[in-house]
Amino acid sequence: MTEAHDDPCAHCEEMMQPYLDHMLSDxxxxxxxxxLDECAWCRKRYRFEESLRRYVRQAVNEPxxxxxxxxxxxLRIPLE
Amino acid sequence: MAEMAEASSDATRIAAEAxxxxxxxxxxxxxxxxxxxxxxxxxxxREEAEDLVQETYARAFRSWRSFQPGTNLRAWxxxxxxxxxxxxxxxxxxxxxxxxxxxxxYFLYDKLAQNDGATDEERVVERLSQDDIxxxxxxxxxxxxxxxxxxxxxxxxxQDAAQILDIPIGxxxxxxxxxxxxxxxELAESVAEDVR
Lengths: 80, 196
Known about the structure:
Chain A is mainly α. Chain A has five helices and no strands. Chain A is elongated. The mean pLDDT of chain A is about 85. Chain B folds into two domains: about 1-90, Rna Polymerase Sigma Factor, Chain: A (Orthogonal Bundle); about 105-195, Winged helix-like DNA-binding domain superfamily/Winged helix DNA-binding domain (Arc Repressor Mutant, subunit A, Orthogonal Bundle), CATH 1.10.10.10. Chain B has ten helices and no strands. Chain B has helices spanning about 1-30, 30-40, 45-60, 75-90, 105-115, 120-125, 130-140, 140-155, 160-165, 170-195. In chain B, helix 2 (about 30-40) crosses helix 3 (about 45-60), helix 3 crosses helix 4 and helix 5 runs parallel beside helix 10 (about 170-195). The longest helix of chain B has 29 residues, at about 1-30. The model of chain B has no long low-confidence stretch (mean pLDDT about 85). The chains are: A mainly alpha, B mainly alpha. At the A-B interface, helix 2, helix 4 and helix 5 of A face helix 1, helix 2, helix 3, helix 6 and helix 7 of B.
């Protein structure tokens, strides 16, 4: 941790995942945003990470087969 | 008189319970698409995912009383599903803990940008095909994949993922971080293969 603080970009990388997951505290959030404001390098990589996640999410999204929906409805327990 | 009152309060109770159950079943079914989309990538194949979802709903409908109304039903269903998935024994294998990983989070970007020449972050990801992504995700070891699927695809919080998988929140975070790096390494490898 201490080593990372010597290099703001390394610290920024450490904060990237929790930042994108909205898991940072307000103070940490502010710290990350201040660094992102002034560092084009990190900004680019944060944006990439964000696009990648969105892209992965879309790519793996597979609609549920219609027959499965019917099978699930058939599992309901009938009223006596 | 007392007997009649008792019988009528019994009937009221039974009717209320039936209403509660119907509401539970409807709410659970309304979440089926979202449950399936997570199950699809927790399980090894489409067929397995379908079986798991059916087993999950059969079990949920039987044990609906143990669901606490007002809590997260989607997380409750996924908890059943991951337990069934574990019961199937697919988790006997331990994930390799000591795999070498790239030095930082950015190597995939560097690789894509380098091959493409384009540096626009949003365009660069489009070099990855849907097949590349699906197979890269399935190549991530289970322990890591589960957290990626729950958090990144299922949109669960770290806290919910920890409860669903019955692991500490710190483990969710470390597996997530490591898992995403493994995923990126797999993706980077698929880019290398496409280029060859």
